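Review box. Two proteins, two foldings.
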Amino acid sequence: MKKIGLPRQLVRWGLYPLSWAWIIFGLSWFLQMDMDERPAWFLITLPILLTCLVIELVLPMERRWSMSWRNLLPDIVYIGLSSGSLGLMSAALAMVSIGISGQADGPARGWPLWLQLPVLFLVFEFINYHIHRAMHELRGPAGRVLWNIHAAHHLPRGLYLLMHAVAHPLNTVIIQALAIILPIWVMGYSPEAVLVFLVVNAFHGIISHFNADLRMGWANYLFIGPELHRYHHSADVSEAMNYGATLSVWDQLFGTFVYRPGNRPSELGTDPQAAMPDYRQVFTVLSLPFRRS
């Protein structure tokens, strides 16, 4: 068995619990303060993002999956067209969602926080799971359009932090509108519940695309992290599942859960036989949903 150094050991087993400790500390502090929740999302998630960026550059798990200079410009274009950079896009979502939650009046408004949170997560994941799965597995004209909307996120042959925000603009609109904004309006969650959800959702979105050997152990049976999401990006369609964004619960219930501790996919991206355009042909990729065949 190959021996790994102390820095990689700390990343492998220490980064995940330490990140959760920071999140719990930050959320506890902000929730106790009588202040606007909106800056909290940015202040809690930014240190995690910057820490992961440094680790990914210094201690990548697979150098062949790392961000390259050739991919940087296409990444920026995709992100820009999907409403800004990783931070700005997620921050805008956080601001809108928290603002809506302060005005909405739905059945969850009077619930205690401990009840709002699991309902919020499970409802979001249920909607997101089925949209995401349909984008991959639905057949016929509708399925083809949904896949062509989603394909931009799967075309790169690597997996790195910046990819979390790389998507077709229509993909971003569909997920945000149907899985996040609409349920917040309907259910009337409190701003505090929405803040917790957005912070945890952003954290797992970041680490799920993390090109580092971060291990979560038993937590994989509750949350989506890099060990699960790498398989979602596998070029082998038989193992490219794990459709959850934050929770792995619905994947386990619906039979799409793939967890192989200590292993990784041999290749990432799309099936070479699918004849998809090159990832760097940005406007060709963006035009895919509007083609007839």
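Next protein.
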Amino acid sequence: MSANAHILVVDDDVEIRSLLADYLRQNGYRTTTVADGVAMRKMMAREQIDLLVLDIMLRGEDGLALCRSVRQYSDVPIVMLTARGDAVDKIVGFEMGADDYLAKPFNPRELLVRIKSILRRADRQPTGGLRAQNVQRYHFDTWTLDMVTRNLSDADGVIVPLSGVQFRLLSRLLAAGRLVLSRTQLMETAGERGGDPFHRTVDMCISRLRQILHDDAREPRIIKTVYSEGYVIGVEVTSS
């Protein structure tokens, strides 16, 4: 899919739309640009979109609201663009279901690298290193993670939504079993690259996963912190 992917750019800045359309097309991607959420929804209803580049600071309905809306009906990968580099904004974007995040001003080449990386992940089932290819579900504590539908459900079958980053982090940890995964390994799983700020992003995502799993942050049982090393699943994991 990645070689012929259709990318939809949603940005109300005409210069950025033009720049990205030209650059992405030069690099072999079919690219469509729109200025707002109304046009985005019409295009997504009419065309097969393989990746969405979505600006946060849109007039009218902003990018975070649009991201959350898209996640109600589609798993299309989403790269968020923002003029603000605040880590809180980044985490909120991930919580809404974004797959990656890039602060303006940015180098189009960096966006291209991230798009290629996301599309490669989308071309294959998420892997957790030790995960068998035929695993469809992970069962741990009172939870089940479905690798096909990407749904997390509790003991009563109630589905708890996960963002793309949360799903990738949790599935990687479950696949590793009792092996400790470093922050760098989890950062790569989340689609991040860089130094300490991104490590903190992983920590914040793990904190949110613990809240979702009702795992006491002071004495976590399910996702344990291994001092100076990383994180590990602390309960038995089975698969089906």
